[in-house]
Amino acid sequence: MDAERPPPPWLLSRDPDFPAGVSGLLGDLTEEACECGFLRRIIEGTSAPVVILDERLRYLYVNPAWARVSGVPAAAFLGRTLGEVLPDVHAYPEVPLQVLKDGQPREETVDGTTRAPSRLGRRLWRVVFHRLEGQDGVVGVCGIGVEVSNLRRYLDDLENAHQRLALLDTAATRIGTTLDIKATCTELADFLAPSLADAALVGIVDEEFCGTPAPGMLRLRGMALSAPQEVRRQLRLMGGPAGYIDIPRGSVSRRCMDTGRPWLGNHASDELLQKMPVDLEPLRVLRAAGIHSFLLVPLPTAGRSVGHVILGRAGASAPFSEEDVLTAQGLAGRAAVAIDSARRYTHEHTMALELQRALLSEPGSPDPGVEVATRYLPSGTSVLVGGDWYDSIALPGGRTLLVMGDVMGHGFQAAVAMSQYRSLLRTVAASGMPVDRILGEVDQRVTHIGLDRVATCLLVLMDPQSGTCTAAGAGHLPPVVIRPGGPPEVLWLPAGPPLGTELGDYASITVRMEPGTVLLLYTDGLVERRGMDIDVSLQALTDLSLSTDDPLEDMLDTLLAGLGSSANEDDIAVLAARQRVD
User: Fold this and answer.
1) Torsion of CA 341, 345, 348, 349, to 10 degrees
2) CA contacts within 13 A on the Cβ side of 552
3) pTM, to two decimals
């Protein structure tokens, strides 16, 4: 540096080891701009950090902005590298070294924790480097930075929100795929672990327990566990995840379920767990298996919680974050709706199935001259009970009225409507009317008793004394006749509207029926298949090898083996009747 020229006001070091070219460069800048303080005010007044590094990336200058955000006095930087001053701030030396080499400006990202207090924690800067050249050649690089910590945090928050929504969207396709409570709870546990935790235990309020819990207690039933083998082994020692546990008022689990708010126990100490109420026994078991952090999330529905989920993280997994809690609450909310729907369905399905089975298990007794066999096969794919029914009614003169019907729709209401149709048909049939008039009378009476569901129906009157059968249909599939020594044949009937439409206009046909002839009545679940023409399905029925010499029960076995399946799309009801041979 020229001995007669004073050092520039922004050169903060007089280290004699600094290259002479830097002094010359700074002097030139000062001579042209800094005498008026213009350049100095710009550099030292900006909020952007400005630094000058020598060819070995040692600091020659830092402006007040960098000293302020770093929390280190400017003089402490001089002659030292970034890593020597701020070891927790990370930069890539390759970038400024390349700028020194070819003179092309480049950007890099500098991030880390400085010594200055900040709510941002880890901070982020984008820095552009320019090569500085003096009279004697290259003397260093100048770096100008812009802090983007808030932008980074915004982008991180945006990415976290995106990931959370993506997780919730994925959960919608994997949780609640059936209306089975056990399956839904298992899907929830398997999704939460490992996507959000190392272990997940799902418990729901038990509403079917035969005993009575102690006063003030709420009984939970463990439904599903997804966890490493060691956790499973520990739980088996305490009775397994399917056991029951009574939770008292004021306990963590009870508060979670009553308030709808989660409970977070990151790095929960043994002392804390030992002080927990009895309902957190599973937590102590999970802790024994290596779980260090816990999150209890209620399963909320409108007005109440149907249970809760216990999540755990083990080993090197990080504790639960606020984002994890929000995500877990979102997943639990969606799963709770599915679990509640499955519970309500199970209750309704059970009632409907019991009602239907009770009605179907008590068909009327046919005349001694007619033998009857029946089968009912629930749907293999539908989640609701159908309205299929059958009946056999003994009438005066040795006659027997065979009935096959199907109420439109599914569920408990369909089963109730089925029982009303069945009772109404029995009442009207006792009057002795012909089968077509029975259908017409029932069609008229249905609206008067408030039935709002239509039904298809097939009536066949067997009269062994005259050797005939008379049949009429109300929108139902025709019966099949199997004569001794002959193949099955469809007995086509005049078309008639379903019952409950008030359209009436039913007609019947009468055919000869020799002793030993078998009649098959069935619902559409036996023959209708998605994408298949009904005529093709009926042809498959008549192509079956069915012999009138076989017992009726064996004939039904052959029939269902040939046409029925575990994946049938609708309930199947079948009735076989045969005039006894003297």
Assistant:
1) 180
2) 19
3) 0.51
